[in-house]
Amino acid sequence: MDQPSAFYTQVDEHEFESTTATSSPWDESLQHGGPPAALLAHVIEQTPGGGPGGIARITVDMLGGIPQGRMRATSRVVRPGRRVELVEASLSVGDRVAVSATAWRIVTSPDATRAQAAPALELPPLPDEQPQEFFPGTSPEWGYGRAVDWRFVEGGYAAPGPAALWARVRIPLVAGLETSPVGRLLVVADSANGLSGELPLAEWLFIPPTLSVTVLREPAEEWLWFDARSTIGPHGRGLAQATLADRQGLVAAVAQPLLVAPR
């Protein structure tokens, strides 16, 4: 199967059409959470505001399954400011809001804290290209899975438990547009749960209704280091966490609460 050229095509100023590159591993009629999260970041980045602030924290709420097809985007500045502002955005399918987000944008001052910044990280080398193996029972043609180059150092989609890997988005978020660094980050951030599930997926459900990503800085490189783990609590809830980095240092922290239940 040919890979789509992007996750979305832009229909008009406010409408986007999903492609099969957004597809969920469990239901091709639905979207994986990563591309819609990145599309909301794109919409927020395009929203005029009071200062040249980049996204410092974005929380994405998935209000049920996100259908494939045409989505209408809206956004507004909730709390304006010259240095810190809050923006909200949503994607609607028909008359239903399918996914929404709030984001704090904080003004950046190039090199203002360079001397105080944390040092670069020593990370494992990028492995050679690997066979792309997904969840047990998932088609090797899984659209979202094939749209990202996954190179595992520890763990894997088929191996329960923590995972450490390099990831690179293969295609643009929106056809004809360059994907922003934060957009590339958001495409993969929602995979923290799927990459690090602690229990067999054939027997257990892990449902993350929301995703929160705190961004220290924009990624400086195409490849992102992804270190993910999940913790199961005693009362049917769990927590998926991940750190994302490049060779210059930490980029972002990811957190997802989970509903954990037998199938």
Automatic annotation (TrEMBL):
One Pfam match: 4HBT_3
Region described as Disordered: spans on this chain: 1-32
SUPFAM superfamilies from the UniProt entry: Thioesterase/thiol ester dehydrase-isomerase (SSF54637)
Domain Acyl-CoA thioesterase-like C-terminal span(s) in chain numbering: 127-260
InterPro entries, alphabetized: ACOT8-like_C, Acyl-CoA_hotdog, HotDog_dom_sf, TesB_ACOT8-like_N
Domain of life: Bacteria
Domain (Acyl-CoA thioesterase-like N-terminal HotDog): residue spans on this chain: 23-105
Protein name, per record: Thioesterase superfamily protein
